[in-house]
Write a structure and sequence with these properties.
The chain is mostly helical. It has one domain (25-141). Helix content is 72%, strand content 0%. It has helices at 13-20, 30-49, 55-75, 80-99, 102-105, 112-118, 124-155. The chain is elongated, with a radius of gyration of 20 Å. The N and C termini lie far apart (66 Å).
Length: 156
């Protein structure tokens, strides 16, 4: 008689993913959470009150990757580079979806919130803004790490 091993498990992908997250990866970092809130407020202010050709389209994209990075770092403890690459790939994916007019395809062309959150038009410059935002985050985190190490060495 054929018997399946208990090692073989046919669980939904979501369950497998959640089980694969190690408990030490989940955390709460107040500093990153507050930074994410700050970036969120700035992004909302830009979306509501700034209607120009530089700040809203490019500075907003530059800051949004910092918002996403800080939001992820608020709850997930993982290597900085892994999170940064994940945020960058996510941002590129959203931009690629804009190229394929995802808002129209989802029937949300008249929805201002969907157009603001998902964006409405593909721009190569947005990819540059995302990349510069992630590079800035990496540089700031590396600088902070060096500062912590130097402070630790002085304490010895």
């Amino acid at each position: 008689m054929f018997q399946l091993s208990q090692d073989i498990c046919f669980k939904p992908t979501r369950t497998i993913f959640l089980q694969s997250l190690k408990s030490d990866m989940l955390t709460f970092n107040l500093r990153y959470f507050l930074l994410a809130l700050l970036f969120f407020v700035i992004e909302v202010m830009i979306a509501l009150y700034v209607h120009d050709a530089i700040v809203r389209p490019y500075i907003g994209d530059y800051l949004v990757v910092m918002l996403i990075y800080c939001a992820v770092r608020s709850f997930i403890k993982a290597p900085t580079l892994i999170i940064a690459i994940g945020v960058l790939l996510f941002s590129y994916t959203i931009e690629l979806l804009q190229y394929f007019h995802i808002v129209d395809r989802l029937g949300l062309a008249n929805n201002a919130i969907a157009k603001t959150v998902l964006g409405y038009g593909f721009e190569w410059w947005d990819l540059l803004a995302y990349t510069l935002g992630v590079v800035t985050v990496l540089a700031l985190d590396k600088s902070q790490e060096r500062g912590r190490r130097a402070k630790g060495e002085r304490a010895k």
